[in-house]
């Protein structure tokens, strides 16, 4: 899988390896190669354009990790970019607060909906749940038979609808709902009609199911082999029905990978599972970071990059801790920490490397949501270097200047200064020197 894209990207790597350092010229050539690689992997051209723009911007002004070569730097940026598109972290399937959880699968004919229903039901029993399978296709009531067979193969309950019932679809759906509740089934997995092309009739049918059943998840099932078709139809389903997530099927084939990237990028919906075979155990929870690495296909280089990142983080954390202990921790350092937190919640990284993390619990209690971090950063940016070094000199006049410069209210400037000084006090109180001697050295 993704072999072609991987080998193309490796060519970029090889090309850059021959170059001593990154210049505008060889970067342009590298970007051209990456662009071609993505296009040939069937990534949607608009998505490619965005990716290339972002890679260019990052390559031009990124923080350099000393231990990486220019080629490795570029690979790191590409990996970060792929990961950002695919999602930074796993998004588990949503279960309803009040059972039953209803999972509705939509997609074009042949994409793997019916098969995925069976796979999901089997997966749910693994979580000690009691799933119920149903198929809802007004045009082809016989479409039920396939799912019914799958259900009996898996020894799982199947809800059959008669042709008469289907003639009054609203009532049929309501009955299905109360049956599910009364029998304590959870989740209810709903297979829906698929066509070769999207039409208004199908969309109306799906909207009806959505309105009555109110699914916790509307999952788009996309065939990774079909490339651009899957992207276009995903977009149409997103616009007309509204999706919550994606299952990408047939990743066991020689898919070029473009569909995966484009579907998430175009719909903004996370991939939650991938299908890797016809059998019902071939359903895998999707790990975005692993997928990015798989696409890049450069295992050893990637782990080298990860190690370099980790060491840089540990070094930084140690440096910060030392400064805190010696009372040299300035607002500059605080800003660095905020950036780190934004990047990867690295305060917790720091805590991980300290044996008595308990003492530091209070720091994370300093509530830091993303917006606040941005605001605090803006405020610190508006200070002079001297103010950052010694915040005690920040008087009322300086405060209002900083407030104007950063576009944040004065009370927020005060809040920042207060939190900063409290954090320092807290750090001084805890017996720092002792802790420091027990910090594991970075290798
Ligand atoms: N290799 C492979 N085949 C799959 C996968 N998922 C579904 N299929 C096959 O794709 C075909 C269409 O699947 P089906 O579930 O009937 O699609 P539907 O029309 O969307 O319901 C069947 O032959 C399935 O066995 C998968 O992850 N890998
Ligand atoms: Mg089907």
Offer a quick outline of the entry.
The protein is an alpha/beta fold and 443 residues long. It has helices at residues 3-17, 24-40, 45-60, 70-86, 113-126, 144-153, 163-167, 169-182, 200-213, 228-240, 258-267, 288-296, 299-325, 331-344, 346-352, 361-365, 370-381, 385-389, 396-406, 410-429, 432-437; strands at residues 102-106, 132-136, 158-159, 188-192, 217-223, 245-249, 271-275, 283-285.
Describe this structure in words.
With 443 residues, this protein is of the alpha/beta class. It folds into 3 domains: 3-86, SRP54, nucleotide-binding domain (Four Helix Bundle (Hemerythrin (Met), subunit A)); 102-289, Rossmann fold; 301-437, Signal recognition particle, SRP54 subunit, M-domain (434 Repressor (Amino-terminal Domain)). Helices cover 59% and strands 8% of the residues. The chain is built from 21 helices and 8 strands. Strands 3-2-4-1-5-6-7-8 form an 8-stranded mixed beta sheet, with helices on both faces. Helix 19 (396-406) packs across helix 20. The protein is globular, with a radius of gyration of 27 Å. Residues 344-367 and 431-443 have low confidence and may be disordered. The chain binds guanosine-5'-diphosphate and magnesium ion (MG). The site of guanosine-5'-diphosphate has 18 residues, from helix 5. Magnesium ion (MG) binds next to helix 5.
